[in-house]
Automatic annotation (TrEMBL):
It comes from Dissostichus mawsoni. The chain crosses the membrane at residues 209-235. InterPro entries: C-type_lectin-like (IPR001304), C-type_lectin-like/link_sf (IPR016186), C-type_lectin/snaclec_domain (IPR050111), C-type_lectin_CS (IPR018378), CTDL_fold (IPR016187). PROSITE patterns: C_TYPE_LECTIN_1 (PS00615), C_TYPE_LECTIN_2 (PS50041). Pfam families: Lectin_C. Gene3D superfamilies: Mannose-Binding Protein A, subunit A (3.10.100.10). This is C-type lectin domain-containing protein. SUPFAM superfamilies: C-type lectin-like (SSF56436). PANTHER family: MANNOSE, PHOSPHOLIPASE, LECTIN RECEPTOR RELATED. Residues 1-60, 85-205 form the C-type lectin domain. Keywords: Disulfide bond, Membrane, Transmembrane, Transmembrane helix.
Length: 250
């Protein structure tokens, strides 16, 4: 375990997979290492435990394999409370009260950002470490496009996919007229298409600002956010899919 409470492999690979047992990790004081259960009931699942306990062990050699590179840090600035990663800044809303996908998009755009687009497994893991909530999955910026495929709201390329097993399934919900046109990320990092009006957390991303203009940008964003927030809740606009030019059931 690292100082921030997250876990890492000793060979520096990102944590792309976890198999915690029920109620684990328990985060009890001094339990900073991980063991694997051998009991029949929890066979193969993981448990955080004290590092000085004597246990059997397993070693692995991976000749020629190197961890994926961490993106080079940018030289720009982020908005207050946003976290830098590479040349972008990230914010995850993970409070108990969830919001719909269109409201999530509105909140991101009010900060001159966009709903999150994801382009690598390492970026997925970075976002998972920011999403500390146990209340919700989080909305990301993937939604149906005009060709009934999928596209990011920030118009970046769709070169990376991380769908959960059996997804996307474009299901209809009983008693609802809404098709699953928006995408959420599960806590394990996998994606699922869902009804855009479901209440979830969300994640935003913006490119870093040059240091000399970040103050002006922040001031403009705060002013625009105030005006946009008032107009949004006064007029309650209907959901318009930014990637889809046709009619929307949601």
């Amino acid at each position: 375990m690292q100082d921030d409470g997250s876990y890492m492999w000793t060979d520096d690979w990102p944590v792309f997979f976890t198999q915690w047992g029920p109620g684990e990790p328990s985060n009890i004081k001094d339990e900073g290492c991980v063991s694997m259960h051998a009991s029949r009931a929890f066979h193969g699942t993981w448990n955080d435990t004290k590092c000085d306990q004597a246990k059997p062990y397993v070693c692995k050699i991976s000749p020629g394999l190197k961890p994926p590179p961490t993106p080079a840090p940018g030289d720009g600035k982020c908005l207050p409370y946003w976290i830098p990663y590479g040349r972008y800044c990230y914010f995850v809303y993970n409070q108990q009260q969830g919001v719909s996908w269109p409201d999530s998009l509105h909140y991101c755009q009010a900060d001159k950002a966009d709903l999150l687009s994801l382009h690598s497994r390492a970026e997925v893991e970075f976002i998972r470490n920011l999403n500390h909530t146990k209340y919700h999955n989080i909305w990301i910026g993937l939604t149906r496009d005009r060709n009934f495929g999928w596209g990011w709201t920030d118009k970046t390329s769709l070169g990376f996919l991380n769908w959960a097993a059996g997804e996307p399934n474009a299901a209809f919900h009983p008693g609802e007229a809404a098709e699953e046109n928006c995408v959420e990320m599960f806590q394990d990092g996998n994606w699922n298409d869902n009804n855009c009006l479901q209440k979830r957390g969300f994640a935003c991303r913006h490119r870093q600002y040059a240091g000399v203009i970040v103050g002006a940008v922040i001031g403009a964003i705060l002013f625009c956010s105030l005006i946009a927030g008032v107009l949004f809740y006064v007029f309650s606009p209907a959901f318009t899919n930014p990637n889809f030019g046709g009619e929307s059931d949601t």
